[in-house]
Amino acid sequence: MPNATLVLAVWAMGGVIALTGALTFSELGGMYPKSGGVYVYLKEAYGDMTGFLYGWVILLVINTGALAGLCVAFAEYLKIFVPGMSQGVKTAVAAVTMLALTGINILGVNVSQSLSNLFTGLKLLAIGGIVVAGFLYFDPARVHLDFSLDKNVPVHLTTAMLTGLIGVLFSVGGWHHASYLAGEAIDAPRTVPRAMFLGVIIVLVMYLLVNLAYMFLLPLEAIAETPRVAGDAMATIAPWGGKAVAVAIALSIFGTISIYTMSAPRIYFAMAEDGIFFKQLAYVHPRWRTPVVAMLVQVVWAIAVLLFFQGLFDKIITFVTFMDIAFMGLAGAAVFVFRIRKKDAERPVRVWAYPLVPLVFVLISAAFALNTLMEQPEQALPGLGLLLIGILVFWVLKKRAGGVAKQ
């Protein structure tokens, strides 16, 4: 049985990873403010092959897997309105959603910023409503909530906590994007760490509050079993409440998918233009002005990931998060490499409490990756297999005239 305190502790641990990671990456972002983010940190610290491999896993694991996971989540929330939807139909809905939005974005009909803000606003409104409802409608006689650590504590607590981080890290991902602006910020040494700190704290508090609200509305056993916890939690108050939240979250996920199908391929596009990735991905359609090849490759592989994991959300996000955090930890360790190798380099931002903060981030990331490999090998090993194939592809391309990697 789940333990309420440990559930909140896992989210707090995710916040520690996000916070220490964000502060670590603020120094890296200051050193390379406009060069392409994580793949440049890795390339500069460890060489061309590591930069290429990051692009490789971004394409074949992280971005495509995240896109598949988002589409599954969208289809899952539609099940509230179609209760009899089978797993096969849900997978088909996820694939069709992915294809349709990719097609729309290939034609250049992108989601506008105002519509993007609307989708984000709907999600925040739904979360705010859940938090308020949870605190207003909490009934101890209906939902027994025990925060003691006297029972329901796993025998292998560390393993359980690290495994529980999979969903948490998938949810709080994206914190590193703000580091890319470190070199352009006004009074960067003061404003960037503060922005990083406040941003992560706000997100962490939001997640802690909404999880506490879930516990006020649903038994822990029900939370652990449902893939639509937000809708199910609000349905305990009124059926229309569950459906209203489901609509808001489904629309928010739909908007995120649309933005993702448009923006993620531009990462491969930028890498290809920089000469460290497949040059075909830099092709831009003369009429639509979109990276058509990159977008098509992304959607085809994302559907392959979707089908390989049979449309199961938990398996997809484990596949994604394992490789994502492994490379994030490796990129975080670049701070130590640069402090030794580039002592005189300009650093608009220096990570707070060096070396403690980056060391905490790197160690927890490494522990998470190792634990996932040991506890969830069915999802972790396919990522490692793709990584090994990427090494072979790198060397083949290197040997060709005008190949991807030039040393």
Mind explaining what this structure looks like?
With 407 residues, this protein is mainly alpha-helical. The chain has a single domain (4-399), classed as Amino acid/polyamine transporter I. 72% of the residues lie in helices and 0% in strands. It has helices spanning 4-31, 38-46, 48-78, 87-106, 113-136, 157-172, 188-217, 220-225, 229-235, 239-263, 265-273, 292-308, 313-332, 334-341, 356-375, 377-399. The radius of gyration is 22 Å and the shape is globular.
Q: What's the SSE blueprint?
A:
Layout: H1 4-31, H2 38-46, H3 48-78, H4 87-106, H5 113-136, H6 157-172, H7 188-217, H8 220-225, H9 229-235, H10 239-263, H11 265-273, H12 292-308, H13 313-332, H14 334-341, H15 356-375, H16 377-399
Strand content: under 5%
CATH class: Mainly Alpha
Please state the CA-atom Rg, rounded to the nearest Å: 22 Å
Strand elements, count: 0
Largest sheet: none
In quaternary terms, these chains amount to: single chain
The helix content, as a percent range, equals over 70%
Describe the structure using short key phrases.
407 residues; single chain; mainly alpha; Amino acid/polyamine transporter I
Question: How would you sum up this structure in a few lines?
Answer:
This protein is an all-alpha fold.
